Amino acid sequence: MLSIDQLTKTYTAGDTALREVTFRVPQGQVVGLIGPSGAGKSTLIRCINRLVEPSSGAIRLGETDLVSLGSRELRQARRRIGMIFQEYALVERLTVMENVLSGRLGYVPFWRSFTRRFPGRDIENAYRLLDRVGLLEHADKRADALSGGQRQRVGIARALAQEPELLLVDEPTASLDPKTSRQIMRLITEICAERQLPAIVNIHDVPLAQQFVDRLIGLRAGRMVVDDAPERLDEAMLTEIYGAEDWTTTDQDDDDPDPDGEAQGTLRLVGTAT
């Protein structure tokens, strides 16, 4: 379980990005983090893995207080946190398999990482992960030969290679078309359910979040203003998060069928609880 209590981040210039944020994420739950640009979503994710140092508050992963850790203990704790990036963060000249195995760098001696000679167990697990994300036949391709959706799948497999206890996902669909976005969100949520992994997904696409996540947390100006089930999200909540707007507009998905045979041409009312 991830526990966040009274988390606050104030930058040296005096800007406060997070204000006393408190919530918990139990095992297997996928939380969608929504809000306007500048609301503090990325700062929150980066405070959890200490890429940004919190000003005050507590962050606990299981029994570990992440905020109090020194540099050595923090390096060890970060092995327990898988990160999936918007821009994939792959090494383009390396193969798909090598990129997945890079998720094991925190567990192997330097000489193994330098020579890219990983234990047989890690290699077998990487093949299993590539099979799970649908890229087994691409294992020997260079990362720069893949499509955007395929690169994101490599990023998911790499994060899982860490054998994490928590997934942090930063805008996983921002660079993808609607159909691929649905496939990636479906894959993330299915894997979290299979492995009972808690996850926080920073996402701008509210209808997509409503469709796939278990819970929505809305931030505005660094404060939590909504914490509820996706199906309960209504016009009043959206106004609380984003400000006044006409939330009765509609959203049309791509008309192509998805891989599971589900038609995507469904007209949905954005901001209305279903």
UniProtKB/TrEMBL annotation:
The keyword Cell membrane applies. This is Phosphonate ABC transporter ATP-binding protein. Residues 251-261 have a biased composition (Acidic residues). InterPro entries: AAA+_ATPase, ABC_transporter-like_ATP-bd, ABC_transporter-like_CS, ABC_transpr_PhnC, MetN_ABC_transporter-like, P-loop_NTPase. It is a peripheral membrane protein. Pfam families: ABC_tran. Gene3D superfamilies: P-loop containing nucleotide triphosphate hydrolases (3.40.50.300). The lineage of its organism: Bacteria, Pseudomonadati, Pseudomonadota, Gammaproteobacteria, Oceanospirillales. It is found in: Cell inner membrane. One of its GO terms (molecular function) is ATP binding. PANTHER family: AMINO ACID IMPORT ATP-BINDING PROTEIN, PHOSPHONATES IMPORT ATP-BINDING PROTEIN PHNC. It comes from the Bacteria. It comes from Halomonas gemina. CDD domains: ABC_PhnC_transporter. Residues 244-274 are annotated as: Disordered. Keywords: ATP-binding, Cell membrane, Membrane, Nucleotide-binding, Translocase, Transport. Residues 2-246 form the ABC transporter domain.
